[in-house]
Amino acid sequence: MNILILGSGGREHTFAWKIAQSPKCDQLYVAPGNSGTDKVGTNVNLSVTDFAAIKALVLEKKIDMVVVGPEDPLVQGVHDFFLNDDAIKHVSVIGPQKKAAELEGSKEFAKEFLFRHNIPTAAYESFTKETVEKGYRFLETLNAPYVLKADGLAAGKGVVILNNLEEAKAELKSMLVDAKFGQASTKVVIEEFLDGIELSCFVLTDGENYKILPTAKDYKRIGEGDTGLNTGGMGAVSPVPFATDEFLNKIEERIVKPTISGFKKDNLPYVGFVFIGLIKVGDEPKVIEYNVRMGDPETEVVFPRLRNDLVEVLQAMANGTLDEINIEIDERAATTIMLVSGGYPEAYEKGKVISGVDTIEDSLAFHAGAVIKDGDIVTSGGRVMAITSYGNTYQEAIKKSYQNIEKLHFDKMKYRKDIGFDL
Ligand code: AMP
Ligand code: GLY
321 C-alpha to center of ligand 1: Å? Predict the structure, then answer.
């Protein structure tokens, strides 16, 4: 079959790397792709939210399946767009329909879903410009730190955690009244602060059945010791050493099962990946957020551990036969270290030549913000490349990634040297 992947990050290069290994895949296209996807498939330069261009490509290249990487096209309804068009409705789309994608598109929608289905999560209330005074009063009833979340998509920047009540009130005003995040902060969710260690759980579903992929932990802050600004993710480890069988069982019983049955009860059409952001509070898992896609860089450690033919798994998701699939996982640990442009997540320069990629041994280089220009691989984004390694332990895997990173270079290259420090 012919497959199209939408997206251009390390996540999409990992999808492409894995899909290209399948004998079931004939032609593989990635739109817009990067210098890594270019090696395993054909890049097509179009925007992931330009649905008309996607349709034209699907018809021209006789695409049978579209795998959606990022959340934007899902929240904007790319799956529904296919279902509503006779010319392309036969194409399998991997990713939930718009109604279900609201689980990531609106924090309030997600919190209502969690409470309706009795899934453990932080207490919350939501506020608008009209109820900002009530928001101040609510903050006064809470203890620090204060967690404020813009309701809509804000490119990963919409969550603000503050230690001081007056600062929290000022932030609430800035979000609601001054529209700090534009449309995304016309509503704000204020949450109880949960104190614990975070991990992510990834679930595949065909809407009826589900399969759980290995857990992973990512490192979101730019600085060592989890300090500094939030990023898309600076590294990841899978499996998560503190996720014991007993703890995983709690996640499945209390969170995964009610989530999947909640989709059915609420009539949320879901064929795709569910990324459940969790926090371990004492010995209990609680949900921090839902994402309706795979994580990046978590994909770069989760998919390398998946032994199955990914196309077979995706087909089973599309056909509603996921119950017939037996997920097989590599016992080894996988870790990834993200190389980023100096300055990221704030302003950074692009177009820096990346050298040494061909000299990498015994690790996988998943390209992210990198493109081919005049025969060179050059930087094109903040997160540039994820170096993934296997090991009998995560420490061994991390060591291998760091050894290979020594051979890589671009001007102002930066990476965290302490991935896994807290495990
Ligand atoms: P989110 O975009 O909802 O994942 O939030 C971004 C980050 O904020 C999370 O990864 C957590 O580190 C933190 N966070 C979100 N909600 C809470 C909460 N209720 N308590 C503590 N930390 C939180
Ligand atoms: N690494 C976090 C995310 O993909 O949202």
Answer: 34
Task: Tell me, in angstroms, the distance from the centre of ligand 1 to residue 194's CA.
Answer: 8
In three-state secondary structure terms, 145 is coil
Q: What are the start-end ranges of the E strands in 292-422?
A: 333-341, 364-367, 370-373, 376-379, 383-391, 413-414
Q: What is the pLDDT of residue 386?
A: 98
Q: Which ligand is nearest the CA of 199, by number?
A: 1
Correct CATH for 2-97 of 3.40.50.720, 3.30.43.10, 3.30.70.20, 3.40.50.20: 3.40.50.20
Least confident of 57-61, 82-86, 177-181: 177-181
Ligand 1 center–CA 278 separation, angstroms: 9
Strand partners, 420: none
Q: Which ligand is nearest to the CA of 158?
A: 1
Residues 104-126: what's their mean pLDDT?
96
Q: What pLDDT does residue 70 have?
A: 97
Cα–ligand 2 centroid distance for 235 (angstroms)? 10
CATH code reported for the domain at 124-191: 3.30.1490.20
The Cβ of residue 19 has, within 10 Å, a number of other Cβ atoms equal to 23
In the chain, where are the structural domains located? Answer: 2-97, 124-191
| CA proximity to 382, closest of 181, 233, 236 | 233
Q: For residue 413, count other CB atoms closer than 10 A to its CB.
A: 17
Closest residue (by CA) to atom 5 of ligand 2? 295
The answer to whether the CB of 156 falls within 8 A of the CB of 232 is yes
Does the beta carbon of 158 lie inside 6 Å of ligand 2? Answer: no
Structure confidence by residue, pLDDT tens digits, 327-373: 999 999 999 999 999 999 999 999 999 999 999 999 999 999 999 99
Tell me what the mean pLDDT of segment 226-242 comes to.
94
Give the position, in ligand 2's atom list, of the atom nearest the Cα of 297.
1
104 lines ligand 2 (CB under 6 A): no
Ligand 2: distance of its center to the CA of 294 in Å? 8
Give residue-wise pLDDT tens across range 243-289.
999 999 999 999 999 999 999 999 999 999 999 999 999 999 999 99
Helix (H) or strand (E) holding 160: strand 159-162
**Mutation to probe ligand 2, out of 218, 230, 234 (largest number of atoms < 8 A from CB):** 218
pTM higher than 0.85, yes or no?
yes
Residue 155 has pLDDT above 90, yes or no: no
Ligand with minimal distance to 338 CA: 2
